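Q: What does the assembled structure look like for these inputs?
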Amino acid sequence: MTELNKNTDFLYPFIEGAPEDPQALLVDLAASARGKAEVSARLQKDSLEEYEDQIQAAGAKMADRFSRGGRLYTFGNGGSSTDAATLATLFCRPALGRPVPAWSLAADQAVVTALGNDVGFELIFSRQVIAHSKPVDIVVALSTSGNSDDLMVALTEAKHRGLLTIGFAGHSGGSMSTSDDVDYCFTVHSQSIHRIQESHARLGFRLWSVVQEQTRRRAAATMAAAEQGGTR
Amino acid sequence: MTTNHTTAQGPPELIGLDLSDDLASASLALARKFHRGATLWAVSPQWEPHAHHVAVEFVHPVIMGKRALPSVALVDPDPVAQTRIATRPGDVVIAIASAGDPKVRDLMRRAPAWGAMTIWIGFGPRPGPGSADHVLWVESDDPMVPATGRFVLMYHLLWELTHVCFEHLGVVTVEPEECTEEVCVTCSDEGRLAEAVQAPEPGSMSALVRTAAGEEVVDVTLVGEVRADDLLLVHAGAAITRLDDEQEQ
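A:
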């Protein structure tokens, strides 16, 4: 935004609050939107390339767990909690493809406020992991800092219980990127919370695509084996 | 990449020229509304988390020092009924929904009668001309678009540009003359959009309606029986036309 001011200051030789030219501002705003979108697109592309192998590996493990009855729990704070909910919806109610069981642990306000009030905010997700999970399940946590206490406690609890643990982080990755309790950590290297969240969404979508493809292949193999075996 | 036109050279273009212009106009209009006390009501019947993300974006800015702005996600099963009660003249309604969503179509049609400006984010076939004050559209038919971050980018940019506008108070404090065919009293004989609040009492032809200017009593002799929530065009103290449910304006 400072850069935008720098570029446009010459257009506004007025004191603050004095009339300015709306048209000039609109031109700058549009250019700024395109610039930020370009930054976002490049970051998404770089992140996808950086983590493709790990996403393939994590996706294969997720597909295996789903095939054995596993469930996915997603969580985050603030905007990331809504992105976690979007990701859970993508898995359990995809517009195309095969649905698998997935929930956002921030979705139930009764549970979240009860835990936050009674046992502490840092336990709002871990207590739900304790209540719901089986070793075959999966957790996905999203945090732009990689440092949120409530997420880290839940990831540790999940790992302790044998779940597959996946983290989406930003900046330099925070605790999430160094913790042994996180099986896969996808750190988006940016200082902008907005741009990090946009790449989280794109990486999450890629992860879902891999799980779909793996699931489809597994089903195809099972069907082929059944055909080979003939009638029982 | 599934959702975008990819080239071997670089990342896909997420915001083109036209869309960037639309975002700029929407942001300035939104900043002007906020400056005059608006609340931003967010609705997304199919993708509820997006409505919540919009609300938290404005209420709790991720950048320190940016002002908190009033925004609320409306997620009742009937978004029209909920938004009708929530909005006051001067507010803004933002929907994240496909153009075919019947609840959102109805909401966008009625919002002008409540005095609310409308912003519509979506993908696939565009809503018809005039369906909303600001249409921010992803030109893709890929059904997976809502889960790829394209909408997140769109409302992030809306937030970022709105706050840039606040650095240019000289522009934000000026409310442009609003003059559309449907709502302008002084330059149109088309009439203003109104929504019936209460039907006439037996033997009376006076109904209480709501328009962008507030509540008023109009004569309904020309349109016949009127029930609550009916959409009407009013002119000079009288309802002159009834708008059918799916009549495009």
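Chain A has one domain: 24-213.
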